[in-house]
Amino acid sequence: MKNKRAWVRILEAVVAIMLIIGFILYLHAREEKPSLTEQMYQTTHGILSEANANETVRNAVLRNDIASVATVKSFFDKRLSQYNFNYTFTICNLDAVCPLPETAPNKEIYADNIIISASPTAGAEAKKLSIFVWF
Question: 73: how many CB neighbours lie within 10 A of its CB?
Answer without folding.
Answer: 14
